[in-house]
Each structure stands twice: as C-alpha cells, then as structure tokens.
Amino acid sequence: MGKPLWTFVLIVFLMGVAGCDSTGESDPARSETPGVSKDEIRLGSSLALTGHAGYLGTQTLRGAEAYIRFVNEGGGVHGRKIRIISYDDSYDPPRCLSNTQELIISGDVFALFCYVGTPTTVKVLPLVEEAAIPLVGMFTGANALREPFNPYVVNIRASYYQETETAVRHLVEDLGISRIAVFYQYDAYGFDGLIGTELALKEYDLEPVARSSYIRGTQSVAEGMEKIRVTGAEAVVMIGTYDACARFISVALAAEYDPIFYNVSFVGAEELARRVGPDVSPVVLMSQVVPQPVAGADGADDVASQYVRLLARYFPDDTPSFVGLEGFLNARIMVEGLERAGRDLTRQGLIAAIESIRDYELGPGLSITYGPDDRQGLEKVYFTRLEGGRFVPLVDWQALVRRPGGEQ
Fold first, then answer.
1. Phi, psi angle pair for 285, to nearest 5°
2. Which homologous superfamily is 3-157+299-377 in?
3. For 6-14, which contacts have Cβ atoms below 8 Å and span 24 or more sequence positions?
4. Are both 3-157+299-377 and 160-288+383-400 of the same fold?
C-alpha cells in the first residue's frame, strides 16, 4: 500500500470507523478508544515465534503472559482483562511491518507491546508516529528507539550503546586489552552494536582491529572469523543472534583461536549456552540488562522472584531466562501505566501515566523512572560468564586476565 493511501486509511480508522456498526451508528457499549471495550484491553505484538530468533520471541511473550495472566486472575485492570494479540514475524522486517499494519488497522488494539529485534521494530516506527499509538517494551537496545525522541516509544531496558560502552571499559581498563574486533549481523541491529563499540573505543583513542559481518538468518561466519583471527584480536564483541554467535565460537575454537568472546544481551544467554555446550571452556561473556532470573530467599518479592514463581505457575515446562524476565518487566510497566491511566482509558492517557512513574521499585537496587522527556526506564548493565553450560554472574574481572602461556 502506498504511503498516501495508507495514511488516508489510518486517519479514517482513527476517526472512529472501528467504533461504528454496519449501519454507521455509534455502539454505546463500545469505548471510543481503539482496542478498549467494556471488559477488555487488547494489546498487539509482532515478534519472532519461529525461525532463527524464535526462542527470543517465545520467551519474551511468555514472560509477559505470566504477569498478565496473574493480573487477569485478580480481575484485570479497572475491571478489564488484558489480551495480547500476537503475530509471528520470524524476525523479518517486512513481515513485522505487515503485521503492524494489520494490528493497527484491522486488529483493533489499544497499544503495541513486546516487539523483538532492531530491524523489525525500527521498520514500524513511521507507523507508530502516524497512528500516535504507544509502543511499550521492546527486546532491543537500539539507539533509533531513543534518538530522535519519540513520545510514543517506551523503552524498559538499557541501550546497546550502554552495554558496549560498559563492556569496552572493563576490557580496556580491567583487563588491559587494546586489540578488540567486532563481529556483527549486517543490518540495523549489527550496525547499532558496531557504532556503540566504535564510540566506546574512541574514548581510549582506539578503534576495532577488525570488523566482520554475516547475513541475518545465516550461519556463514567462517570467513568473518578468519578475518578477525589473523589480526590477533584479544577480544571479539559479538552483535548477532545465538545461532550465528555459537557457530562463530565453534569455528574459532576449531582454528585454535581463543579470544574473549563478548556478547550483547540480545544474543540470548540460555540458547547460546545450549549451543556452545558444556564440554568446551572458552571465555564467553554476555552483558545483561535485567538481574539474574532466579528466585531469592523464601518470601522474596523482587521482580526476578515474582517472574520465577509466576512462570512456574503458568508455564511449568519453561525454564526461567533473562529474555523472559525482560518480557515480564515489560508487562509490569504496561500494567502499572494502565492502572495509573484510570478507567477512562486513552492512548494519550497511557503515555501521561507512564511519564508519571518515578522510582518504581522492582527490587533491591532496581527501580524505574520516566518523565516528559525520558522514555527509558532502566540504565543498569550486568555481566555474566558462561560456566558449566550456563551464564552466571561475573563478579571478578581480574580473574579473566590472561597469564603468560594463555592461562588465566
């Protein structure tokens, strides 16, 4: 659909076509706000539920659903149950765009929610702006969702720039590493991580000793690995998906190349750990933007403990994950915004309600704040290390210092 026609259809829709019956008369039992009825709020989501990023989308959605089912069991929000209408985009930008058009025009949704991935989410930003529809909680740290400022785009997590800046600082200052390469997915996601790494290195008058990429949806990494290996890079910043990054690590180790492999959060800790396997011991690090997804002591009520308990209740076959905890956080903020917005729900009212959130406690040392010019809730970056087939908190960077002979 061409943009002029799309804009016309969207304007007609937003003027209330969805609120009229076949005779053109207003339905008094229906809210004038799209996606809101007397007893239901409908949220629309496009995310990868199949394909090479399917684990990420599935975990994000289940984390969100765990909290929303809990809220619905308690009566919902101001007497309305929340329903997520989710479409699979397989991490494909054109499919995400088509899904979003369908959700906005025909899906009758109040807000967009829990999108996954940079190239997909960035693709729909013009639609979000044209429709003036809130987009809340995305599993991506893309800078394009933060600059330029868009009042309808509500981020929960820290950005990729923050992840890579913090990682580079540790690599350079704590480990004394100066030869750092970047392996990235050749799309908006990979470019974002590459730029973030370059900016961080520039603070130390450094730049990547090598840059290599792969095509999204493939595992064609051998040539890119070799390009990095011959430079003698001591650390590789990896901006990809779990399958490609696991393949890169495997190919590197087979070539007797064993640098520090650092991954950003989107790579997906649990799935990367499974694919690398427990029988090898490379130094694989990953930054996280949420705490460890484990329950605290009995009676603990921090967000991670809530997530673990509710996931076990509603999805007993699932294992808690960092990705799922992000989805759970997305739902916590969405519900808090809906609660504050009141019974007379509007899209602008939701945005104003989210702006009012200040020091919203999620657990010890973890709180969320928004404002009129602030659409990012969390700033903290955590680090984990692959040990024994799973990612555990990294508490001592000095323990990673390479000794003569390659030992740690």
1. -110, 155
2. Response regulator (3.40.50.2300)
3. 6/101, 7/130, 9/105, 10/104, 10/105, 10/127, 10/130, 10/131, 13/104, 13/105, 14/131, 14/132
4. yes
The mean per-residue pLDDT over the stretch 137-158 comes to 96
Do 216 and 187 touch, CB atoms closer than 8 A?
yes
Provide the b/e sequence for 201-215 (b: ≥16 CB within 10 Å): beeeebebbbbbbbe
Instruction: List pLDDT tens digits, range 296-312.
Output: 877 788 999 999 999 99
Say what angle helices 322-341 and 54-73 make with each other, to 10 degrees. Answer: 40
Q: Name the helix (H) or strand (E) containing 385.
A: strand 382-387
Cα separations in angstroms, 285 against 2, 105, 160, 397: 45, 43, 15, 11
The separation between the first and the last C-alpha atoms of the chain, rounded to the nearest angstrom, is 58
**What homologous superfamily is domain 160-288+383-400 in, according to CATH?**
Response regulator (3.40.50.2300)
Report the residue count for the chain.
Answer: 408
Between CA 73 and CA 52 the distance in angstroms is 33
Instruction: Read off the pLDDT of residues 49-84 as tens digits, 9 standing for 90 and up.
Output: 999 999 999 999 999 999 999 999 999 999 999 999
Structure tokens at 194: 């590459």
ω before 320 within 30° of 0 (cis)?
no
Q: Domain extents for the chain?
A: 3-157+299-377, 160-288+383-400
Kind of pairing between the strands at 360-363 and 260-263? unpaired
Closest to 258 measured CA to CA, from 267, 248, 268? 248
Answer yes or no: are the C-beta atoms of 353 and 338 closer than 8 Å: yes
Give the pLDDT confidence score for residue 44 in this predicted structure. Answer: 98
- Token pair 């009229």 is found at 20
C-alpha to C-alpha distance for 255 and 275, rounded to whole angstroms: 18
CA distance 254 to 257: 7
State whether residue 386 is helix, strand or coil. Answer: strand
Q: Coil, helix or strand for 238? A: strand
Burial environment of residue 282 by CB neighbours within 10 A (0 to 12, 13 to 18, 19 or more): middle
